[in-house]
Amino acid sequence: MTGAGPGTERNGGGAGTEPDPEPGNGTGNGTGPGNGTGTEPGGPAHGPGSGPGPGSGPGPRPSGGSGHGAGPGEPAAPPDAAPATPPGGPAARPPSAGPATEAAPAPAPGTGTAPGTGAAPAFGRGAPGERRLHPVTPLRRAWAPIAIAVGWVIHDLDQAQKWIDALTLTHALLGLLVIIPAAAAYGFLSWWFTHFSVTDTELRIRTGLLFRRTAHIRLDRLQAVDVTQPLLARVIGVAKLKLDVLGTDAKDELAFLSNKEARELRAELLARAAGIAPESARDVGEAPARQLARVHPRTLAVAILLLAGVWAGLAAAAGVTAVVWALSGSPWPALAAAIPSMGAFWAASAGRYITEYDWTVGESPDGLRLDHGLLDRAHETVPPGRVQTVRIVEPLLWRRRGWVRVELDVAGSKNTVLLPVADRDTAGMVIARVLPGVDVRAVAGAMRPVPRRARWCVPLWWRGYGFTAEGPVFAARHGRVSRTLSLVPHAKVQSVRLRQGPWTRARGLADVTVDTGANKSVTARLRDADEARAVIRAQADRSRTGRREALPDRWMTGR
Fold first, then answer.
1. DSSP readout, 447-515?
2. Taking the CB of residue 327, how many other CB atoms lie within 10 A of it?
3. Gyration radius (Cα) of the chain, Å
4. Buried b / exposed e across 432-452, counting CB within 10 Å, b at 16+?
């Protein structure tokens, strides 16, 4: 089938197939390559209508036709010789057709098939196995026309003010009688024409009334399946399913489903992505989880209050407000200047507390499960095999308490926090589950400092840099006020670079940078130039060995 982007496939036109290695002798009776969508290589492609095959005589016969060529001394089969085949069922095997093939009914133009999935139904009609979203979904989508009207008012305030002044009660009521039904109709129609279904290999989402779209999300490309519940959704009893797909920036989502259906669908998708048979996937249920760590709300509150950046943001907001008020002599410009600064302060303090409240890390065959949130509750999954980098952050005021923050980079996912705050032993235990064989204390003890001549390049912070690559990870440290230790498994290193500026080259120093699969990089700064070149030469062997010994990326399988 034609792919519309990594991890998501769309319907397209044109049949792409491989030639059938079996020689055909005579004219094949069957469907010729038409304008249907392509199939996976080696599978039959069907177009609307039938006719003679693409050619006759000896030579390789394309597998685009579903008829078969007659063997030597054998008359060609009549067009109606083959028995009717139910959709998705195996075709009858003719005597001279060679290996049996799968035949599917001809789909309508603009739809596609995939092996083992059956034909996609036409828009507007339900199909066996297709489901709709929760009935409250139209309420969510009905806000779109109202949001457009509000956006127009904000865009042209003067004209909107004139219209409002000239508005009468009768006109206002007529406007409401138009806007409210239009919003309700939009929400209902967008819900009515949205279907989803799960096949052996993909999740299909069909949407659109005027502009039709079918998303084919391959299950083997799923990074994570997260269940989120905004505050109002928790009250109603519904949830949103978010899908992290390898190679895509935005998350596909199904909003909204009932709580039970969302969790059952999540378990089914993970089971099918792991290779469990489709007939058993629904019965597997959600894999059990074992709690590894939990952040107490009081600990989180104290940790946020001990962040220097929070208080620096508050001081900056107060200072900017005071200066603007003094220069303008009016409180309104000062208030306008204070709003962005106070918003940043809120996001770094109270907003962070609300998001990271009751943070729990659990371990299951699916991966690491992260549950958190005070108002909006989120249930996220981190497949350990997809983790590219782990960062251990130590803010200055946390060190006396022995606290650290653990962050990570996951390929194709926006999950960036593993533990918002934890003691070093707990953090080391959780990191060992993500990066098997990594002892954080041993890595920190093996750090080699930079040469003393590095102080001429970075006078104040040169003692904060360190590096080691002798263990299972490429580890680099930087920072004096807030220390950060970055760990990159050798198996995840995509490329390695050496960089020297004029000043560092004069001092015999160089930087070594490794790139990961999450489009991020980690740099070991101010290394001795000879050491840096040796690291460059040795990293290829380390990466090769790491990939050979790395654990599988997929859930619950040994593949």
1. PEEPPGGGGGTSTTTGGG-EEE-SSSEEEEEE-SSSEEEEEEEGGGEEEEEEE--HHHHHTTEEEEEEE
2. 10
3. 30
4. ebbbeebebeebbeeeeebbe
Share of the chain above pLDDT 70, in %: 70
Nearest C-alpha neighbor of 556 from the set 219, 113, 179, 194: 219
Tokens of 447: 């750090």
How many angstroms separate the Cα of 399 from the Cα of each of 269, 348, 418, 443?
42, 20, 19, 18
Compute CA 294 distance to the chain's CA centroid, rounded to the nearest angstrom: 25
Tens of pLDDT, residues 361-374: 999 877 889 999 99
pTM of the entire predicted model? 0.68
Amino acid identity at 553 = D
Task: Specify whether the CB–CB gap between 122 and 108 falls below 8 A.
Answer: yes
Please give the C-alpha separations between residue 325 and each of 315, 337, 338, in angstroms, as whole numbers. 15, 9, 10
Q: Which residues pair with 156 in a beta bridge?
A: none
Q: What is the mean pLDDT of residues 448-458?
A: 94
Residue type, 310: V
Six-digit token string for 278? 């489709």
DSSP H helices in 329-394: 331-348, 350-356
Torsion sign (Cα): 162, 168, 170, 176:
positive
Statement: residue 422 has pLDDT above 70: yes
CA distances from 523 to 408, 409, 452, 511, 520 (A): 16, 15, 19, 7, 10
d(CA 367, CA 555): 7
- In this prediction, residue 478 carries a pLDDT of 95
The set of residues, in sequence order, having a beta carbon less than 8 Å from that of 373 and lying 6+ positions away, is: 229, 354, 355, 357, 358
Q: Given this model, what pLDDT does residue 501 score?
A: 93
Interatomic CA distance for residues 241 and 392, integer angstroms:
30
Q: What is the pLDDT of residues 454-486, one digit of tens each?
A: 999 998 889 999 999 988 999 999 998 899 999
Q: Which amino acid is at 400?
A: R
257 with 266: CB under 8 angstroms?
no
Mean pLDDT across the chain: 76
